Amino acid sequence: MKWIICSLALIGATTIQAQTVSVSPYSSLGIGEQLYNNNAEIGGMGGISTVPTNPYGQNANFSNPAANRNIRMTNFNVSVRGDNSTFESGSDKVSTGSFKLSNISLAFPMTKKSTFGMGFQPYSALGYNITNTGVGENANQMSAMEGKGAINSLHAFYNYNITNGFSLALRANYLFGKLETSEKVSIEGASLLTDYSTKANYRGVQFTLGSMYQQKIGKNNNLYIGAYYTLGSNLTTDLNEMTSTYTFLGTDKASLDTISLKRDAEAKTKLPHTFAIGASYTKDNAWAISGEAKFNTWSDFEKPSLSPVSTVASNTEYKNNVYLAVGGYWIPDFNSYKSYFNRVIYRAGLYYESAPYALYGSDINRYGVTIGAGLPVGKINDGTMLNVALEYGQRGTTSNGLIKDNYLGVKVGFDLNDIWFRKRVID
Fold it and tell me: What is the CA 182 to chain-centroid distance, rounded?
């Protein structure tokens, strides 16, 4: 039954295409809003992912695969995420939201020294709908821009504990998906509008090498140092660009005329390299204090185009950036039989991300605060958890006619931990 549940969940995840994955206008940049491996445990600690975020070692980490060195039981995770954003531009405000599946994964120990995991997650997504009006020399002009779609990841990791304190691991991601954009331009008094649309199908492989060092300090304390390196990769991109004109009769298009149609089935999209390092000081089953720094080479990013780039694209500068986070967890009494809330894992964190891009010379920085809780479910000693995290943050600026994004996120994940693959012994 357990195998059936997990197989159906993993197969079903690969067919999810209709969910609204992103709602941010900043998702129009790069290959969309980055969504990878921000589950409820990691999300509750400010996004820290280089070191363990679970005091019992029972959570699959797909950012640093070597952080899975202490998994002792099979871990099955299903997570969802909801976001609500309020966008400000000048005196205008608008709010919108999304709800999506964010993770399905399965991880388990293969031998006494090795662990294996596999799963599905959204990797990045488009989700914007922006209307601009302007005054030209002779007439008013309106532009309606829309983007949708997602790039998904099917991935697997293998971790090997070389010594009692040091482990190395490798993760492989197969990235695939489709992103669609459209810009409809109309002029006041004109019967036809012009539609500039693109459809891009992506596929490619990405690799991450992870490491983890664990040092026992005294009887109950531990120092963890983790690091991972994700190689920049070139995604094969089947790019279609079409320019057309048409008018509307009711809701139907009429007088459709294709002005230009271009295609490159073997274009390349270049993704950045990522290097991250983090450390955590913990007391067994009691508390942890963690910090992390992540560096991305977004200045290397390249996106194919078959036509002259738009005004926004020509005024976008991709920049190397850093992500800094601090966070931790606290358990009042992990072995308490009298109080359920003494066994809850309480999490909190802060993060800051410098601009991976600048628009019209303005850096689009991001920062936020997170809180979370791991709620024990079932037996007191099996580690099965319902994890919840709340995140509040800001991104962008209202300067130069840009948009400030004030967002509130909720992440919920269920971790089922059990012994699935050990043979029963009858005495």
Answer: 24
264: containing domain: 2-418
What are the residue ranges of helices labelled H in 184-325? 311-314
Single out the residue of 183, 200, 184, 202 nearest to residue 192, CA to CA: 184
Whether the Cβ atoms of residue 368 and residue 403 lie closer than 8 Å to each other: no
Average pLDDT estimate for 247-260? 75
Integer angstrom CA distances of residue 215 from 57, 218, 223, 359? 15, 10, 5, 44
Task: Provide the pLDDT for residue 16.
Answer: 47
pLDDT in tens, 264-294: 999 999 999 999 999 999 999 999 999 999 9
Are the C-beta atoms of 150 and 125 separated by less than 8 Å? Answer: yes
Q: Which burial class, exposed, middle or buried, applies to 369 when counting CB atoms under 10 A from its CB (0-12, 13-18, 19+)?
A: middle
Percentage of residues of the chain with pLDDT beyond 90: 57
Only one residue has tokens 């979370």, namely 372
Tell whether 257 is covered by a domain: yes
User: Encoding tokens for residue 88?
Assistant: 């400000």
Q: What is the CATH number for 175? A: 2.40.160.60
pLDDT of the residue at 189:
67
Q: Are 100 and 122 in contact (CB under 8 A)?
A: yes
3-state secondary structure of 300: helix
How many CB atoms are closer than 10 A to CB 239?
22
Q: Which two tokens stand for residue 400?
A: 């130069």
Asked if residue 36 is part of any domain, the answer here is yes
For residue 54, the one-letter residue type is N
| Cα–Cα distance, 204 to 121 (Å, whole number) | 15
Q: Is residue 287 part of a domain?
A: yes
46: which strand partners?
Answer: none
Q: Which residue has the tokens 């070389």?
A: 162
Q: Which residue has the tokens 């994004």?
A: 405
Which CA distances in Å does 104 have to 12, 23, 240?
A: 10, 22, 31
- Return phi, psi of residue 10, to 5°: -70, -40
Tokens of 1: 């039954």
Count of structural domains within the chain:
1
Q: Give the predicted TM-score (pTM) of the model.
A: 0.88
pLDDT bucket at 21, cuts 50 / 70 / 90: low
Does 424 fall in a domain?
no
Q: What is the DSSP string of 5-24?
A: HHHHHHHHHTT--SS-----
Determine the 3-state secondary structure of 4 from DSSP.
helix
